[in-house]
Structure formats: C-alpha cells, structure tokens
Specification:
heterodimer; A: alpha+beta; five-stranded mixed beta sheet; three-stranded antiparallel beta sheet; 12 helices; 8 strands; B: 120 residues; mainly alpha; 42% helix; DUF742 (chain B); coiled coil (chain A); HATPase_C_sf (chain A)
C-alpha cells in the first residue's frame, strides 16, 4: 500500500517539473513572438517605403517618356518650322519640374544639334540651287543678248510694216525675258552680265522702263540740270534696280494709273524717284523689303517665297555690291515711293552731249535756255500762254505766244517794215516746198537785208559779189579738208 | 554723216519710240519721202522723239532715211513717228521726185502710128 502515496508524489513532482518547464517555454515563446512582431512591422514599413519609391520612379519614368514624346511630336516640328519662319514660337518643356535637370540639358542638346544640322543642310541645298540657276541664267542671258543683236539688225534691215511689227514685238518679248533672267541671276549672286559705256541717267531710266510690260504708263520727268551720266560699271546694276522697282510699281497699281518717275539732281548725287498710286505696301512688307535692301547676310532662295519675289532681293544684292542706295516708303499719294539715290562721287559723271548724243527717246530736260539743244525745248517747257523769256538768236523768227497755235502758219509781219519776197516763208499746205538752208536763217539775215534790198549802190553790190566769191572759194576749200557737217550740224549755231 | 559707231549694246530699244507700233497710219511714206517741218510751236504734248524730229527739220527739209539716220532709229519706226506728225499737221511729207528720164521713143512712135491710123 505504500506505492500509492509514492506514486502520487512522483506524479506531483513530475507535474511540477512539467509546469516549470512549460512556464519557461511560454516565456521564451512570448519573447520570440514580440521579436517577430517587431521584425514584421519593420519589414512592413520597409516594404511600404519601397512601394512608394517604386511609384515615384514609375511616375518619373512616365513623365520623362512624355517629355521625350513631346520633344518628338511638338518641339522638333516647332523648331523646324521656326527655322523657316522666324515668327513661329518654339514650345518649351512639357513638365516644368525638369527645368535645369539633366534631362532638360540632354533635350536641349538634341534641339541644338537638329537646328544646326537643318541650317547647314539648308544653306548647302540653297547654294547648290543658286549655282545651278546662276549657270543657267548666265548662258540664257548671253543667248538672249545675241537674239537682241540680231533682232536689232533686222529692224534696221526690213522696212516692211508687217515684218517690222513682228520684229518690234519679238524685241519687246526678248527684253522682258532678259529682265527676268537677269534679275534671277543677280539674286543668285551672278554679276549683271553686261558692262555698258557711260550712259545718261535719263537714257538709263527710259531704257529700264522699256523692259517692262505696261511701260507706256511710266511718265518720266527729267529735272536734271546737267547732262548727268552714270559711270560704265554702275549702268546696268542701276538699270536693273530701277527696272525692278518700276515693275513693283506697275504691278501693284491699276492698269489705268500712271507711274511717275522723277530724275532729280542734288548737291552730291542724283536720285530717281518712283511714285505709284497703287495699293501700297503693308508695314511688314515694307519692313521685309527694307531688310532685303539693307541686310548684309547672304540671301537664301527660300526667303523669296512662292512664287519667288526677286525684285527687292536683286536690288539688295546690287546695292550691297555697287554702293548706291534704295529706299522704299509709303507714298504721300497712297502708293509706294521708291527712291534710288546715286552718289555723285564714285558713280556719276557728266558727258559731253556733242560727242555723245543722248538717245532720242530720253525725256527732255527742263533746263534754262543756253545750249543749242535747248532752243526748241524752251517753248515746250513753258506753260501754255507764256512766251519764252529769252529766245536765243537762232530760234523761230518771231517768238510767238504758244496759245496762238495755228495749223497754217502765218507770215510773221511785225519787225519787218518792208514786205520781203518771202524767202523764208514756211511752205503753206499745197505749195511746193523749197529747200532751205541748214542753218537757221534768222542768224544770217538780220533786218538790214530786206530793208536795203533796193537801195544798194554799185560799189556795195560789187563788194557783196566779191564776198560771195570769196565765200564760195573758202567753202570749196573747206569741203575738201573736212567733212561737210557734223551729225548735229543742223541744230548748231 | 555716218551713224554713230555704237561701241556698246543699245540701252533704249527702238520700240519705245512708238510704243511698239510699226504700222504707220499712212502707207505713202518711203525712205526717200522728203519731210518739211511746219512752223508751229512745239507744245508739251509732243513726245521727246517727235520733238527731236521737228527740231531736226526746223532748218530745212530732210528725207525720211536721213531723219532715221540722225535719230539712230530703224526706218520702219521713223515712218510711224512721221505718219503721226503728218496726221497732227506738224509735218509735210512729199513723195520723192521721180528720176527725170527720156520718153521711150518706141512707145511714142506707136502712139503716133495709132493716132494716124485713127485719123485715116
């Protein structure tokens, strides 16, 4: 019976040991659990931080992608457009947060590279196009000059009106073609293609008008005091410039309206002033024109627009190369006024009209009487009704007021007391014409001759006959030694 | 006189003188037509080239070809200018004097024969 308590004791002790062990284990487990929980929390925190970072990164990546796409889709097209048209704005970064970052710098570098590449390529292509055009125009221009020469020769050869008409038409067409080709060549950097001799400014301007359709609308008024001429090397450049300015004036005004050209002589040079009464130019057009006329940079064909407007560009090139000036401004008449100023020092000279007669088509200068040419010019320059103030000796027999214009001339009776047998009476309609002396008669026939016709003494008659004989002999002697008369012999006194 | 030796290319073309016309308003003009200026004041509506013609004819008559040579213009163009001036009454044009020549003896004899045969 002793075994029962013993067994009980053993059981109890065993239970106690177990409880102690269990308690110890429990404590340990609790500790481990707390540690685990702390680690879990840390891990969770870490993971959430990572997640957050990830989100941020992907957002940034998306923004960068968008920025690159923006570069490709918006900024580069803007840039190419802006290089062609400077007024187009180029867009900046899509996301301003990139400002100053490496991304921004990289993208800017791309833009700069593209811009440089485009500019270089454009200059290269333009230069190639210009040289091609230059080559073509030079050849065509030379050919057209040959056509001009043969047309001119044919005009002198054939009198038949039909043929002459065709020749004149062909000449005009050729002249227009020449002008186009020449201006295009000049824009492309070619020289004007022709060196002329020193030429009168009036002649030059009239010649410039002849190259344009509608030249009959151009009214040239010559206000030059002296026979001003342009030196040889500048003749053709100035003619081209005046032609292009006139072409603008004619093109932009109604076909009924005139274009007035005034030649004005200043203290230090001469000006060609072209006024039209047309639609005028906008401010930006004027600005663009003045830029073309004044800029020192090379010209690009792409700047001329489509269809190309080469007028101001050609004038600008020539202004740069030859040193005259062109100014364009709104005209007080509503249209455009263009002024070509030719400085006297290097570009102008004065020619001798006797040695180098001016073209007959050139407008007469409004000059004071004096030279042989001015005699007939004076009455026309006077307003109707006013007589010439100082008619030179060689002019019409009596200065008649211009208002007294008779179809059939009347014998000028005053200042001639004795009725002469009309030696210098102009032939009346129907009467046979008489050959008259080349020199104006009033010069050699003062009033004394008709007065003393019947009152001559024999001695006087004798001396007159002797004088006649002497004159005839000296005349014959002179005829052998020198040509009978100069080209201008008629008009000279 | 001899035409000016043009050392350079012409600056002013001939068609400018007439505004491109080459058909004169009268077809009676000839190279040898003698032109006589009418003593009439030159008014401002006369164009420069007409002015020069009138100026040239003031001292006396010239043929059309001579005028053309003085002006360095083709004869066809000068014809137009002259025709205009004649129309405006500023110029007289006279046909050239035909060359004096003897009558053809054969024709005269045949006419005489014919007359005689008529009579008989």
């Amino acid at each position: 019976m002793t075994s029962i308590p013993q067994a009980l004791l053993w059981c109890l002790s065993a239970g106690t040991v177990a409880a102690v062990v269990l308690a110890a284990l429990l404590v340990r487990v609790r500790k481990e659990r707390a540690g685990l929980r702390a680690r879990l929390t840390a891990a969770e925190e870490h993971s959430s931080a990572t997640l957050h970072g990830n989100t941020e990164l992907s957002a940034r990546l998306r923004a960068t992608e968008a920025e690159v796409r923006h570069l490709a889709e918006a900024r580069l097209p803007d840039l190419t457009l802006a290089l062609a048209h400077p007024h187009v704005p180029v867009r900046g970064l899509l996301d301003q947060r990139f400002g100053g970052s490496e991304t921004d710098e990289a993208l800017d570098a791309v833009m700069a590279q593209v811009s440089e590449a485009i500019t270089k390529e454009r200059t290269r292509v333009d230069a190639a196009a210009q040289s091609t055009l230059r080559g073509a125009t030079t050849t065509i221009q030379a050919l057209l000059y040959q056509v001009q020469t043969s047309l001119q020769a044919m005009q002198h050869k054939y009198d038949d009106p039909q043929i002459a008409q065709d020749l004149l038409d062909a000449d005009f067409l050729n002249e227009q073609a020449l002008r186009r080709v020449q201006a295009t060549g000049v824009v492309c950097g070619a020289w004007p293609g022709l060196t002329r001799e020193d030429s009168y400014l009036a002649e030059l301007v009239v010649g410039a008008t002849s190259r344009l359709r509608g030249y009959e609308r151009v009214q040239v008024s010559n206000q030059l005091r002296d026979p001003v001429a342009v030196v040889a090397r500048a003749v053709e450049p100035i003619a081209i410039t005046v032609t292009e300015l006139l072409a603008n004036a004619l093109h932009h005004s109604h076909r009924e309206l005139p274009v007035t050209v005034t030649l004005q002589q200043g203290n230090r040079g001469a000006s060609v002033i072209i006024d039209d009464y047309g639609v005028g130019m906008h401010d930006d057009e004027l600005k663009h024109a003045m830029e073309l006329l004044a800029s020192n940079d090379g010209l690009l064909l792409t700047q001329l627009g489509d269809p190309p407007r080469s007028g101001f560009a050609a004038a600008g090139q020539l202004v740069r190369q030859y040193g005259f000036g062109v100014h364009v401004e709104p005209s007080p008449y509503g249209g455009v006024r263009a002024v070509v100023y030719i400085p006297g020092d290097p570009l102008l000279t004065v020619l001798d009209e006797g040695a180098r007669p001016i073209s007959v088509m050139a407008p007469m200068p409004h000059r004071a009487p004096g030279g042989p040419r001015d005699r007939a010019a004076v009455p026309s320059a006077m307003p109707t009704g006013a007589s010439a103030p100082a008619t030179p000796a060689g002019a019409l027999p009596t200065p008649r007021p211009a208002a007294e214009a008779h179809a059939v001339p009347v014998q000028p009776a005053p200042a001639r007391p004795v009725a002469e047998p009309a030696p210098q009476q102009p032939p009346v309609e129907g009467e046979l014409p008489r050959r008259r002396r080349r020199r104006p008669q009033a010069e050699q026939q003062p009033e004394s001759h008709p007065d003393t016709l019947n009152l001559r003494s024999p001695e006087e008659t004798g001396s007159r006959w002797a004088a006649l004989q002497r004159g005839t002999e000296s005349g014959r002697a002179a005829a052998h030694s020198e040509p009978p008369r100069s080209p201008e012999g008629n008009a000279q006194s | 006189m001899t035409p000016r030796q043009s050392s350079g290319r012409r600056l002013v073309p001939a068609y400018l003188a007439t505004g491109g016309r080459a058909r004169p308003s009268r077809n009676t003009l000839d190279r040898l037509t003698v032109l006589i200026g009418v003593d009439m004041p030159i008014t401002s509506e006369v164009r420069p080239e007409e002015h020069r013609i009138l100026e040239l004819l003031q001292p006396g008559a010239l043929t059309l070809a001579e005028v053309a040579a003085h002006l360095h213009l083709p004869v066809s163009v000068v014809k137009v200018l002259v025709a205009d001036l004649v129309d405006a009454g500023r110029l007289h044009a006279r046909v050239p004097i035909p060359e004096a020549e003897q009558f053809d003896r054969q024709i005269l004899e045949r006419v005489l024969d014919g007359l005689r045969s008529l009579k008989s």
